[in-house]
Amino acid sequence: MILFLLPFLLPLAATTKTYANLTAGGSTLSPVGPNAAFSSPSGDFAFGFYPLPNSNSSLFLLAVYFNATSSTAVVWFATNSTGPVQVPARSTLLLTLTGQLSLSDPTGSESWNPGATGATHVSLLDSGNAVLFGADDTLLWQSFDSPTDTLLPGQSLAQGSSLRSKLTDSDFSFGQFALVAQNDGNLVICPVSIPTGNYYKAYWSTGTNTGTQLVFNSSGSLYYALQNSTDNTELQLVSTTYSTSRFHQRATLDPDGVFRIYIYPKNPINGSLGNNWSAASNLPSDGCRAILTDNGGGACGLNAYCNSNAGDQTRLSCECPQDYSFFDAGREYLGCKPDFPAQQCDFDESGEFELVEMANTDWPDADYEHYTPIDENTCRQYCLDDCYCAVAIFRGVDCWKKRLPLSNGRQGSYVGGKALIKVVKSNSSLLLQQQPNSAITVVKKDHSSVLVIAALLGSSGFLNLVFLVAIVALVLGYRNSKQNYMQLHHDPNMSGLNNLRAFTYKELEDATNGFEDELGSGAFGTVYKGILLAYNSKSQNPIAVKRLDRLLKDTEKEFTNEVRSIGQTHHRNLVKLLGFCNEGTHRMLVYEYMSNGSLTEFLRTSPRPSWSLRVKIAIGIAKGLQYLHEECCAQIIHCDIKPGNILLDDDFVPRISDFGLAKLLRPDQTRTNTGIRGTRGYVAAEWFRNSAITAKVDVYSFGVMLLELVCCRKNLEQDAEDEAAAVLTFWAYDCMRGRRMEVLVEGDEEAAAEMWTVERFVMVAFWCIHEEPSLRPAMNNVVQMLEGLWMFLFLLILTHFSNLIYIIINTSIPFLNL
């Protein structure tokens, strides 16, 4: 019965052919397979589905891109009012019988349509222009009329139109800058607010009032066409010496707000440029100097600065001051944050801060005091004495004090003067602060230690004894006060976690031998192996210390979430948290050590692990998730279930770890809206739909991982010879639909002898990765099905039979979103 119903649970595969263009009611394009795109006659450009970077080829754009260059460049992509149209695999592009170009997602819902009707075919011209033609080759729509961030030779930007930068080179979302051909005849580049999209004050413009269009002509010159009552003129912006016959060219508004013309040699022997895109010219000529914003942080974000002295000007060079770091190294425009606790006026310890000097650096905004005339030493002291002062700018006889956050930072010879950055004192500046004629030298740093006895000076043994007793009392009293301080001043969110031990940074540094033995790393930090001595014993206990060394904006929240989540959970299939460190800028978690590593390593062993052990591990993981979703006092959504986050203890019992991305819900909540979390390849479709997120995202990730356990292979095999077999879910689906289940466990005699169990596990996996969250089973149902309750499985199928009928009738609705 199950094998009979199984095909109806899965999508019908469509086979298509590759065409030079699309015809009405005929050919289609789909992201996966040979018909993903078609080329222009010369082969220079391609039009079709383009995999988004870093998405494991699970999301695609409908795009026009250079096809003849080794460094691919997207020059147009379909957008809507909110940004790029991103569709999953098994989406389709077709020209309907009514002559409409329609992009549909796997559910059959239309994602994009340019609005033209009556088209007979779609072609991609050698200029890179995707064109929709009607009868008698009537032009109905062209991509050149709706540019995104790029102009090509032969293309123009009409009055009232604009280019919008991407957010980053790999993120095609609407970015922070726009190039606008204004209706008043002026051409400007201006910052744009995210997400509302309103324009800020322009930082570059032609200053004209008679402009009609920005033209990138077929010879590679860029000019702004002007018109008045007597004649037509051109305002030349860039006159290139590079011929379009010898170089591919494009003009792109880059994520850093600079409009650049790029060239790529059609023949590698052309000069020394090699096979890369090179910037031939840019507007404005010095982005660091030109980009000033009244709102936001400028070219590089708050507290960062733009370095005009950097040699590579392909992108503006954004940097952080000393003892500051980027919120996110992959998104530098978010700016920088201090690596030390920000000084507060209600807790100021004099002597803890110093000023470091940065020449030719300034943040023009954020001034709140200006002193003149004044000398540099006085300027320094004024800033050190002021708890609000984060930076002092000294130039000649002028001193400006600035508070955080800083904006429009820049560095270059044109700036002049110097910036004096307030930071916590370095170790060397705090060593051996000795008073004259003192009998005792005390070294103080981060309240972490007290060094005793440089010399015991006294005229008698009695005085020496008095000194010694006083020093011992000082040390013991300080240790007690330090413990009391940690108990009183650690994060209040840690309350109620009396079963956890609060470690000092020094204890964990010693336990890990200076963080020497690295076990692995993840999105928020690195894990090290350590050894702890048991209380009142000489026995050694191995531990794993997770050090959160990438302190992003929400690190504090992520840290407290993980401690609260794991500290209040107790289950055989969850990793046990032993303690934490929340001292100064240090955030660390201490776990029990798992001797058999992660599931990732386990599945790659040769020969492959036994089938019975894989079954045991799969059921254990399912029970751990069942506990998190349904048995905790507050439901926990893990949000990052993958083999790397499943650890194996001495007996190969699976333990779910790493709750750094967990979303802890109150008892009255069932779902939450949040940013995309997790690891690509294991992320459910609803993350990309701006939909409410439920525990079913973990069910989806578990389904993908269950297939990995069955087949003992990665979700994505980059070096697979057969493209269809590269994605595990696609390959497993094809094997199941073709009644070739034995191929999934080929060479595994133990698994082959239990094909009924294999089939059951694979069916449960596909049920878990259903695109519609409400049709995925809950984890308690998954546990029951994995443990062999066939009648329960049958009843669940009948429960969803009405949905299956709907799927059969609407065969365009797929089961998978990969």
Q: Which strand order does the major sheet show?
A: 39-43-44-42-41-40
Total beta strand runs = 48
Mean of residue pLDDT values: 78
CATH topology of the largest domain: Transferase(Phosphotransferase), domain 1
- Tell me the β content: 25-35%
How many domains?
5
Distance between the termini: 28 Å
Named at the architecture level, the CATH assignment of the largest domain is: Orthogonal Bundle
Query: Largest sheet, described in full?
Result: 6 strands, mixed
Helix content: 10-25%
Task: Supply the CATH class of the largest domain.
Answer: Mainly Alpha
Structural class: alpha+beta
**How many distinct helices?**
17
Compute the CA-based radius of gyration.
32 Å
What does this entry look like structurally?
Helix 9 runs antiparallel to helix 10, helix 9 packs antiparallel against helix 15 (779-786) and helix 10 (696-711) packs antiparallel against helix 14. Residues 1-20, 427-498, 663-674 and 798-818 have low confidence and may be disordered. This protein is of the alpha+beta class. Helix content is 21%, strand content 26%. The protein has a 6-stranded mixed sheet with strand order 39-43-44-42-41-40. Strands 3, 4, 5, 6 and 9 form a 5-stranded antiparallel sheet that branches. Strand 23 and strand 24 form a beta hairpin. It has 5 domains: 155-164 and 174-285, Agglutinin, subunit A; 309-425, no CATH class; 430-488, no CATH class; 499-593, 2-Layer Sandwich (Phosphorylase Kinase, domain 1), CATH 3.30.200.20; 599-787, Transferase(Phosphotransferase) domain 1 (Transferase(Phosphotransferase), domain 1), CATH 1.10.510.
